[in-house]
């Protein structure tokens, strides 16, 4: 039994539960608490999520190929990508910084993209298996998404510390801009995906079975 079958709808922003008037069953209702437009399901959720996921993959390529930061010293300029930066910190013994950058810049974005692609494909194929696991995976994307900016914060802190020293200058490279775009777009993709679609597949399957047995 779904909430919509009982005439109930929840706000995607503040999660206020509202009784859906009959005259609004096919229209748009605004939340009485926050004023946000309320929909039974997020409009074009799958299409928008796919578009954002593809955009994230495209931007993730230059984010890894272009310099994440540039170090200017008396000896010259050294530009490091994400991977070369990880190797540099490993060689200098800064294992914690290397681990933070590797996890935040490599593991987190790739994991998030893989989960979103899996959820999109499973919903489009009408899969009714592992519904609770897929729900947990969606929650995981929201949790790890909050840590995606750690790498950018590390670069910002290093820039501030080095500028304070006055002997060396560190600047954010072009890769940092693309990586920031990847972080923002993947967060939007996770927000755009409607997890209720996972459970809709189960309801539709049960209706087909009941109709076949009738």
Automatic annotation (TrEMBL):
InterPro entries per the UniProt record, alphabetical: PqiA-like (IPR007498), PqiA-PqiB_transport (IPR051800)
Cellular compartments annotated: Cell inner membrane
Listed GO CC annotations: plasma membrane
Keywords: Cell inner membrane, Cell membrane, Membrane, Transmembrane, Transmembrane helix
This protein's record includes keyword Coiled coil: no
TM spans (from-to): 48-66, 95-123, 144-164, 176-193
PANTHER family hit by this protein: INTERMEMBRANE TRANSPORT PROTEIN PQIA, INTERMEMBRANE TRANSPORT PROTEIN PQIB-RELATED
Record protein name field: Paraquat-inducible protein A
Classification lineage: unclassified sequences, metagenomes, ecological metagenomes
